[in-house]
Amino acid sequence: MCGRYANTKSSPSMAALFDAEDLIAGADGTDGSQAPPRWDPRYNIAPTALAPVVRRSKSRDDRVVELARWGLVPPWASDPGIGTRMFNARIETVATSRAYKRPFAAKRALVPADGWYEWRKLPGGGKQPYFFTRPGGVVFAGLWESWKREEDNLLTFTVLTCPAMGEAMATIHDRMPYVLPPERFAAWLGEEDAEEAELLAGPSPSLPEELEIRKVGRAVGRAGNEGPELIEPVDEEGPSTLPGL
Prior knowledge:
- This protein has about 240 residues and is mainly beta.
- It has a single domain (about 5-15, about 45-230), classed as SOS response associated peptidase-like (hypothetical protein yedk fold).
- Helices cover about 15% and strands about 35% of the residues.
- The chain contains 6 helices and 11 strands.
- Strand 8 and strand 9 form a beta hairpin.
- The longest helix has 7 residues, at about 10-15.
């Protein structure tokens, strides 16, 4: 699964990286609209938090980067609280699930990240967090939806997950976020034609060799904790039991 991740990129840098219009820094409320919440580097993004996504905007006919709430709320939902349970969508069922098949068909998004956290269950009880990252970060495959009720208008998203790749990763957790290779960004956003099998082909086979897996401190388990120290490696207590580490 993917229940925590980090993104320390600024909105202008993400706009430049994805050749998208920046709706985060670009909307300051001077036109009479309400200014969006400020985006600052985040080292501990949890479900229900606001985070940047890149999507294709019909009204602008262009890519945009904007803030959305993590936890997809389908348009038919009577209560937006359903999003607290819909922060992940399984790659195996996303094309057929009632909740996800509509956004999978037409509302796919890119979710920029520096990396993500997974927790390994320890033999004696408790869990040890690890941070998965690589130079330049990663991009998750995501879906977005817009939920409207009277004055409420929520933009929400979910992150797709797939089976863990590589022995070291699988030792920590059996699932991982669907990390998209750059050559599939355009197809995922609907800018190029692609068959369902191509869209859901999974991460690049080379991904496990590209990733750094860090054992990190347990402070990340509290959603309110923030700061660069959360992604810093901690000393191993004895030799690693993870294959290849």
